[in-house]
Amino acid sequence: MHLARHEREAFPAPYNVFMLRLNKFLAHAGVGSRRHCDDLIAAGRVKIDGVIVRDLGVQIDPGTSKVFLDDHPVHAEKLVYWAVNKPRGYLCTNHDPAGRPLALHLVPHVDQRVYTVGRLDEDSEGLLLLTNDGDLAQQLMHPRYGVEKTYEVLVAGSPTPDELKQITTGVWLSDGRVKAKFVKKFKKQGESTWLKIVLAEGKNREVRRMLAKLRHKVMRLKRVAIGSVQLDRLPKGKSRKLSLAEIEGLRKNARPRETKSATPHA
Predict the structure, then answer these.
(1) Is 135 a catalytic site residue?
(2) Does residue 61 contact residue 20 with C-beta atoms inside 8 Å?
(3) pLDDT tens digits along 217-242
(4) Which of 11, 145, 194, 244 is at 20 to 30 A from 218, Cα to Cα?
(5) How far apart are CA 231 and CA 229, in angstroms?
(6) CA gap 218, 234 in Å, rounded
(7) CA angle 220, 222, 224 (to 5 degrees)
(8) What pLDDT does 205 receive?
């Protein structure tokens, strides 16, 4: 807490335990980037409960604090969390000059400005998470947190036990060594084979590139889980809100690895 003395005295006791940085609150409310919000704060254009605040380190309780920009109230955007079953042919971007369909087009009913958590390439399908919770999204995708993503992959041919072992011990690509946390065969389809692959650190098109290096072309790739959230029976092209239990599960999944390993098993 870094309020000046006269600012601390101006706030009643409940505000002495803040929960969210002011610039983050403003950014979530759609005011602009955090850097832009810092400029607004430093310029004295932001008030908390009628008091001008210029300290960039100020934190607030978004549930009780009244925030004003140029004397206009700022309302926090509600955080939302959606699961989508992305069909093939949809892009995970906010804009495509060629006018191709976007994953965001699958949630026209969502009022908030959401974005995809990570990406599935155009030819891939399955579970996508869409949210406006930038911090959680970053944690879910950052290698430091090791959040597992589970895929079902149809490949040409039938990988040998040695090839499956290589997938989990490491395959060298142009941008370094990559490996899966887990892989197994689970079904044959003609001359092709379905694999279940779990990644904890993702690079661009990692599954496809890894299998191509082993000379097994990917015929179909579907993501079926991100952390504890499962695709389950969600129809293709449809979406659903995450439950509170699922959101809490993702927050636990997104704890740093050292925290996870220190947590005793039940």
Answers:
(1) no
(2) yes
(3) 999 999 999 999 999 999 999 999 99
(4) 145
(5) 7
(6) 23
(7) 155
(8) 86
Q: What is the pTM of this model?
A: 0.74
Is residue 209 within a helix (H) or strand (E), and if so which, with residue range?
helix 206-213
Q: pLDDT under 50 in the chain at which residues?
A: 1-18, 261-266
Selecting among 38, 49, 55, 121, the annotated active-site residue is: 121
pLDDT on residue 258: 59
Q: What are the tens digits of pLDDT across the range 24-59?
A: 888 878 787 788 999 999 999 999 999 999 999 899
Q: Which token pair is 90?
A: 């949809």
Q: Is the dihedral of CA 108, 109, 114, 116 positive or negative?
A: negative
What number of residues does the chain have? 266
How much is the pLDDT for 44? Answer: 95
Q: Kindly compute the dihedral angle of the four CA atoms of residues 131, 134, 139, 143, in this order, to the nearest 10 degrees.
A: 100
Q: Tell me how many helices (H) and strands (E) the chain has.
A: 8, 17
Residues 6+ apart with CB under 8 A from 81: 129, 130, 131, 133, 241, 242, 246, 247, 250
Q: How far is CA 12 from CA 9, 49, 56, 200, 239, in A?
A: 7, 10, 20, 45, 43
DSSP 88: T
CA distance 47 to 44: 8
The string of DSSP letters for 109-147 reads T--S--EESS---TT-EEEEEEES-HHHHHHHH-GGG--
Helices (DSSP H) in 33-84: which residue ranges? 34-42
CA-based nearest residue to 51, from 11, 4, 5: 11
187-193 contacts at long range (C-beta below 8 A, 24 or more positions apart): 188/158, 189/154, 191/156, 191/157, 192/154, 192/155, 192/156, 192/157, 192/219, 193/154, 193/155, 193/157, 193/158, 193/159
